[in-house]
Amino acid sequence: MEREKMHRLLRDMMLSRVFEERAAEEYQKGNIVGFLHLYPGEEAVAAGVINAAGPSDYIVSTYREHAHALVRGVPPRAVMAELFGRATGMSGGMGGSMHMFDRERRFMGGYGIVGETYPIAIGIGYAIALRALPESVICFFGDGAVNQGTFHESLNMAALWRLPVLFVCENNHYAIGTDIHRHSAVPEVYKRAAAYNIPAEKIDGMDVLKVYDATRHALDRIRRAGGPQFLEFETYRYRGHSMADPGAYRPPVEVKAYQVIDPLTIGAREIEFRYPTPAELAAVGPDNIARLTEHMISVGHLEEEEVAQIRKEVEAAVEDAVQFSLASPQPTMADAWQHLNSNRRHEQLLQA
Amino acid sequence: MEREKMHRLLRDMMLSRVFEERAAEEYQKGNIVGFLHLYPGEEAVAAGVINAAGPSDYIVSTYREHAHALVRGVPPRAVMAELFGRATGMSGGMGGSMHMFDRERRFMGGYGIVGETYPIAIGIGYAIALRALPESVICFFGDGAVNQGTFHESLNMAALWRLPVLFVCENNHYAIGTDIHRHSAVPEVYKRAAAYNIPAEKIDGMDVLKVYDATRHALDRIRRAGGPQFLEFETYRYRGHSMADPGAYRPPVEVKAYQVIDPLTIGAREIEFRYPTPAELAAVGPDNIARLTEHMISVGHLEEEEVAQIRKEVEAAVEDAVQFSLASPQPTMADAWQHLNSNRRHEQLLQA
Amino acid sequence: MTQELLYWQALNRALDVEMAADESVFVLGEDVGLYGGSYRVTEGLYAKYGEARVRDTPISENSFTGLGVGAAMVGMRPVVEIMTINFAMLALDSIVNGAAKIPFMSGGQFPMPLVIRVPGGVARQLAAQHAQRLESMFMNVPGLRVAVPSTPQDAYWQLRQAIASDEPVVLLEHEVLYFTKGPVDTMAEPPPMHQAAIRRAGKDLTLIGYSRTALQAQEAAAELARDGIEAEVIDLRSLNPIDWKTLSDSVNRTHRALVIEEDCRHAGAGAEIAASLAERCFFSLDAPVQRVAALDIPTPYNGALEAASIPRVADITAAARALLGPREKAAA
Amino acid sequence: MTQELLYWQALNRALDVEMAADESVFVLGEDVGLYGGSYRVTEGLYAKYGEARVRDTPISENSFTGLGVGAAMVGMRPVVEIMTINFAMLALDSIVNGAAKIPFMSGGQFPMPLVIRVPGGVARQLAAQHAQRLESMFMNVPGLRVAVPSTPQDAYWQLRQAIASDEPVVLLEHEVLYFTKGPVDTMAEPPPMHQAAIRRAGKDLTLIGYSRTALQAQEAAAELARDGIEAEVIDLRSLNPIDWKTLSDSVNRTHRALVIEEDCRHAGAGAEIAASLAERCFFSLDAPVQRVAALDIPTPYNGALEAASIPRVADITAAARALLGPREKAAA
Ligand SMILES: Cc1ncc(C[n+]2csc(CCOP(=O)(O)OP(=O)(O)O)c2C)c(N)n1
Ligand SMILES: Cc1ncc(C[n+]2csc(CCOP(=O)(O)OP(=O)(O)O)c2C)c(N)n1
Ligand SMILES: [Mg+2]
Ligand SMILES: [Mg+2]
Q1: Which residue of A147, B257, B315, C279 is surrounded by the most CB atoms within 10 Å?
Q2: Residues of chain C with CATH 3.40.50.970
């Protein structure tokens, strides 16, 4: 892979990490409210998958979608401002953490009800197929979401009508506090795609280069042969399910096991499932990120100083996003009504 | 198999056939109204499966359940009276064709919304498992019902918690007018059970002896090893989906192909998808029924005359059921309210 | 050009016209294609537009309705048929959390030109699971429009308007109306999709119905007229939004209102209508706004009980007469 | 014995008592076991009763709710927790077509001792998909009982009564109430599950609330009292059935009624209450029954807009004052 591309992946992962840790901090300050599901530990999936997609491909995401949006190129300002509920946010402050949309970038939303991404994705896929366009849809979901009825219904239709949908399972082994062995009779998620004759692969989701390659190939197969593809990425979230979850259901030994994957272990504190202090946050470092860093250095694509440089850049971008959000106006009720009625066009309702 | 048992199977199949043809006739006369989904062609499944079950097993059925009830031992009078909407019917005239219940015989109802049988069945299975009883649940559903989300959700839970449920697919190749190849990406239904690690087999559903044996073995496995089992029975319905369906979507050549399975072809007229006239009805004869008849004669378990005798018996039983129904009282609105409030017990509602 | 058409034919015509005019319109649902639709509404379209635009689906309501939502987000104009409203509960998440909320949640970025056609109501002895109404459920969803045509003409107009609209529209079609006949003018300019229609003018009381009950109200009015009672009949045509002005203008003139709904009474569609009119017309009402509604009981299979569980014309005339009682007293 | 308990603790206590007393009671839902429940309601039960009776489920709402239905048919007493009401739409078929209809459709053969616990309402900035109310939807289902406790005491009583009942009961718990505190007497004889409670006596108008809005109504009444306005406050406690007698007795005394609901106004829970009271109390009302309801808009994420989209105490006092306006005029 070219140097350029790797730099992009590294930067995206670091931006995602720093953004999320800052979001946690802003949550504690009360600038962000509601459910906040963070992504640390899983960055390789967002970065690898979305960088492998083209600009005309569509992304359908979940409530854990900030990193997806950032990697897709949405400015950190717009993502952070949405978390702050400001008028300048991606969804005008109407959607918040779980409902980020960017029409221009074909970022088709974050959905909060588990299992909603499948039907939306096959609908977009159906539209593409009807128009015979060379586009695809990437549909994200978690391991827990695989047990929702829509998984079954939608994958069947995707296969039956050969829709151009790439199903991407972010398998972090947990549905909130329930371990995959306690929620799925067949815990090898990719095997379940066989029930629909959808080609499926399981990939190490902690290795961004593998994620990127697997996604490229899957998208190629969709473009060449038509029909859906399925990728399962094994990954791990270092934090609790959301800011409301202390994560006490996970045995420390298990969390440790996942750290071993990580050549550097600066992220250690994070996994004690306390919310990190600002000091700790500053100390938070790589893991799947570190892995890429090491690799790039070893093949000569990166200098130690560059890492610090990128970190500085992304920290500045995130700081800027926070300042921008703080300075942004609150939406008004008039804005809210306008969003609701955005599709009424010229139609005049009778005095209602 | 003992003579006795075979006679029972034959009688059940003939009763089911005659009952359904008479129901069609009564529908045309206006004595039965609403949706009426008939079973001719599929009798081997009901007879084979339900005869293999014990009295302490539970049956959960669909809207095409009259034969299931009859085979389970519900008197034809109670089944017919329900079709007539009379107070003496299985459900007191409240449920009709699609909602027949018999608590005493553990006949847990016919359900009209496709896909509803799975959750009910695993619920009963859960209760059995909690109480550690040597009982099982038989859960019926069609090939079309396999695409409903509840299939996926419920089979996963059944497997995960090793519930004593036998899943029985009556694969007649059609969901109303939609051929299985047009509704399922994987048309080999039994293969879909692999997604939950549930042992599954495909059986010729036109051969009642095979149906019976397969069911016995599956129920044995449930009792011995615990956990669910899955059986797919390939079968065919000679009539349209319901009395409202002319069945014009099926190529005659296909229907013919299924007749070839049948050593006798007296049923031929039926499959032209006109509603049979009384004269035709009288001429309606065996097919999967004929197959068993032939076999029994060939092994010396049956004399030609006995067939006529059984036919006379079941016809008399059905005639009796019709007369009984005609003479039965209509339920009153007071009955309806009483059924609705049957579980209020001693509780006195405030003036409502 | 005016023709006599059956209700289902009017819907069929509307689909045909819109599909011919706009390639982004497509139809999907169970047995809408090869089979021709449970109530014939899509008859002939499969042959004419092909299986991609008239798509037979598996029995997967939540997902194929959600498919319509996704397709609408990228500018298609899907017309989803949920075979009957009884199965719509399975698709409710796609309707409520998807179709109705996405335009809003995205800050107005996405259109939702989605039509959901649902045959429903109490037909003939289909029993409790196949006799849902659910209109009040859809009414309570902000972001969703609900149209309830009672005539072939309205069926034609409102389906075309629904397809043309960029807002999600639920079209509730009554199963008993599919084989009713009426004139359909395909050239005339339609009234707004949600405007109520005064079907009969009168001064003594206002009968308010929608879908099938609008026709029953007209029958009742004809009967009352024989006794010299002049009932005004309003056909709501839309349950969200509701054309309050037409309603209150009428009630302010007649001083009495009777709402007829097939929904179960407790928290049914009529509750909103009665509550709002009682509020809006408080000072001009001579008697309480009354409701003739379905009983709060699952629909019995038995034919006589089924009929007794929903409003009959006789129930309407009886309620109308009872409602007029106090007026005479007040006048006396 | 009276103790101060949090609302969630009261529910937890009720579950514990019933599970200890009856082996057929079991709990299931997402993360109710090992994790201890999203709102801690099932805390400690997994350790005490084991995983079979405190069952963590996959994310499969329709099926695990239906599992409860099947188990109830054979005499178990399942308590299904749907993590939040927002996911209840996925389980609606099991609730409406299963739990509510089976006892009736079977001609009264089967009991349905099923409890469905659903945290819901507008909490704090959870955005449109996680801020459903849906009370009117459940109210419209014949065969279902709907309880809406506002205090720890009622939470304790009504959950125990729901478990003891052979009818299916939906228990709507408000997410904002879980950490409110109040006295719980575990020995006292509870009132009927559906009996309304007069929380404050007054003669000038009747404020009617339920769940969280019952508490807001009490706050509003306290504020109005400072201006010499004596509001009577009724806490409905049950939305199906509704204790009409307590309501109309009050309104017949005060001649004015204000219904406070968190449901969206159009066809919300308040519509039924307002419509019925307007009818029942027509001749004693001095002003129209009014509703303070949520706006007909999906819930915005932004905090200020969210707060403005549902009833606030200030909205209630303002509406109460406006409602009293005409009385003074009438008296003058
Ligand atoms: C239908 C539905 N049920 C329950 C929830 C509550 N919930 C939110 S996230 C979640 C776990 C999802 O797990 P998974 O799909 O593995 O995604 P992850 O959070 O691990 O990324 C649950 C149960 C929900 N949002 N929607
Ligand atoms: C959820 C739902 N969707 C649609 C229907 C309408 N419907 C009734 S039977 C049926 C076909 C079912 O096919 P299958 O499961 O193969 O059973 P079969 O009728 O062939 O016995 C359909 C679509 C329904 N009853 N429920
Ligand atoms: Mg997960
Ligand atoms: Mg079939």
Answers
A1: A147
A2: 2-185
Which tens digits make up the pLDDT trace of B142-164? 999 999 999 999 999 999 999 99
The full set of domains in chain B, from first to last, is 3-327 (3.40.50.970)
Percent of chain C with pLDDT over 70: 98
Q: For testing the chain A interface, which of D67, D129, D301 should be mutated: the one with the most A CBs within 10 Å? A: D301
Asked if the model's pLDDT at residue A29 lies above 70, the reply is yes
Q: What is the torsional sign of CA D116, D122, D123, D125?
A: positive
Q: If you write DSSP's letter for every residue of B266-302 in order, what string do you get?
A: GGGGGGGSSPPPHHHHHH---SHHHHHHHHHHHTTS-
Residue intervals in chain D for CATH 3.40.50.920: 197-331
Q: How does C250-264 read in b/e, with b if 16+ C-beta sit within 10 Å?
A: bbeebbbbbbbbbbb
Rounded alpha-carbon distances, angstroms, from residue A269 to A206, A239, A274, D194: 19, 10, 8, 51
Q: What is the pTM of this model?
A: 0.95
* Ligand 2 pocket mutation pick from B98, B114, B141 by most atoms within 8 angstroms of CB: B114
Q: What is the mean pLDDT of residues A267-277?
A: 31
**Contact D77/D163 with Cβ under 8 angstroms?**
yes
Residues B12-22 pLDDT 10s? 999 999 999 99
A vs B: CB pairs below 8 A = 64
At A87-145, the pLDDT tens digits run 999 999 999 999 999 999 999 999 999 999 999 999 999 999 999 999 999 999 999 99
CATH topology assigned to domain D197-331: Rossmann fold (3.40.50)
Length of chain C: 332
Centre a 10 Å sphere on the Cβ of residue A234 and count the other Cβ atoms it contains: 21
Cβ within 8 Å of residue D202, ≥6 positions away: D221, D229, D230, D231, D232, D233, D254
* Amino acid present at C140: N
The ipTM estimated for the assembled molecules is: 0.95
Q: Are C246 and C278 a contacting pair, CB within 8 Å?
A: no
Chain A contact probe: residue of C73, C97, C163, C234 with most A CBs at under 10 A: C73
Ligand 1 interacting residues, C-beta cut-off 6 A: A 64, 112-115, 142-145, 170, 172, 174-176, 241; D 30, 59, 61, 83, 87, 90
Class of domain D2-185: alpha beta
Q: What is the pLDDT of residues C300-322, one digit of tens each?
A: 999 999 999 999 999 999 999 99
